[in-house]
Structure formats: structure tokens, C-alpha cells
Amino acid sequence: MAGLGANFEFDLKKIIALSTLRQLGLIIRILAIGYPKLAFFHLLAHALFKALLFICAGSIIHNLKDSQDIRFIGSIVNFIPLTSVCFNVSSLSLCGIPFLAGFYSKDLILEMVCLRLINCLIFFLYFFSTGLTASYSFRLFYYSISGDNNFYSRFSFDDKGYYISFGIIGLLFVAVFGGSLLS
Questions:
Q1: What is the pLDDT of residues 18-27, one digit of tens each?
Q2: What does DSSP assign to residue 148?
Q3: Per residue in 6-15, is it b (16+ CB within 10 Å) or e — as a string?
């Protein structure tokens, strides 16, 4: 339900919050079919890239003068490239793009669901909910890369804060290599 709601939302913080609820639902479902270690592994992998997603979203919202509407972040990659690239990497890791942190846990979850003898409806729901995650992740990717910067002048953007950039780069390495290190 949270994944479906995230696909129709335009508020950046609500999309990320609904994404977190969707991942918590996945962890509970993994616990329900009897894989507590896999649920904990997904919780840790999810924390790696979600921390980067929250930091980058906060930076984007700050640069947009506290506006959270994703329709206003068009072509933000041209103005704050470091934050935008890290935001998109963490968003792509959320949907399980190969060899990012989210891939290792999501691939293992879907593999265990395929090997487990479960109801066809539940099998479909696992893959459908993963598709919803990919859908809203690519929607965020689309809004941040393409489109017009609809509201703000480019002079109001700043990607030069030392502490935030250092934190974003550190979390980027964790979001890219953390899943393979955890597995």
C-alpha cells in the first residue's frame, strides 16, 4: 500500500517516508515466511543507502528554500551535481540495481521467495511490490535529471558545504560497496 501511495505523491519527504514503510513491510513479510537473518540483512543494507537518500533529500529541500515538491527539482543535476548524483545512486540502490547495496538483499529476498512454496497471490505481491519500488525510484530519477527547473533561479543553489559534501561522499561509498561487504 505504501509503495502504491509513493507512486502518486509529489512531496519528496512523503515519498521517502512511504518508501521506508514499504521496506519495513517487506522486512515483516520476510520474518513471516521464516527468514530472520535475511530480514536483518535487508534492514542493514536498507539503512546504508537510505541514510544517503535522507541526507541528499534534505540538501535538495534546503536548496529549494524548503519546498518539497518534486516537480520543482527538474534538471537539478546541472546546479548541484554532487548531491544530485548521490541522490540518484541511493534511489537506484533502493530499487535494486545490480551491484549497489540494495541489490544484494533484494535479490536474495526474491530468490528465497521463488524457492519457497508459497501461494501464487503472495508470490505475485512480492514481485509487484518490488516493481512499485522501482517505479517510484525511477520517477525520482526522472524528475531530478530531466525536466525544467520550474521555480527557482540557478543562483540560489549551493553544493559547496564542506561538512555536508564530506558526509555525502562517505555515505556514497557505503551505499555502493556496503551491500557486498555485508554479504
A1: 888 988 988 9
A2: -
A3: beebeebeeb
DSSP state of 146: S
153-181 CB burial, b ≥16 within 10 A, e <16: eeeebebeeeebeebbeebbebbbebbee
Instruction: Please give the full DSSP string across 94-126, using - where no structure is assigned.
Output: HTT-TTSHHHHHHHHHHHHHHHS---HHHHHHH
Q: How many residues does the chain have?
A: 183
CB 87 within 8 Å of CB 144? yes
Interatomic CA distance for residues 55 and 61, integer angstroms: 10
Predicted confidence band at 37 (pLDDT cuts at 50, 70, 90)? very high
Picking from 6, 102, 2, the residue whose alpha carbon sits closest to that of residue 52 is 102
pTM here is 0.85
Count of C-beta atoms within a 10 Å radius of residue 20: 17
Domain locations in the chain as residue ranges = 2-182
Classified as helix, coil or strand, 64 is: coil
Three cell numbers written together for 24: 519495513
Distance CA(17)–CA(13), nearest Å, equals: 6
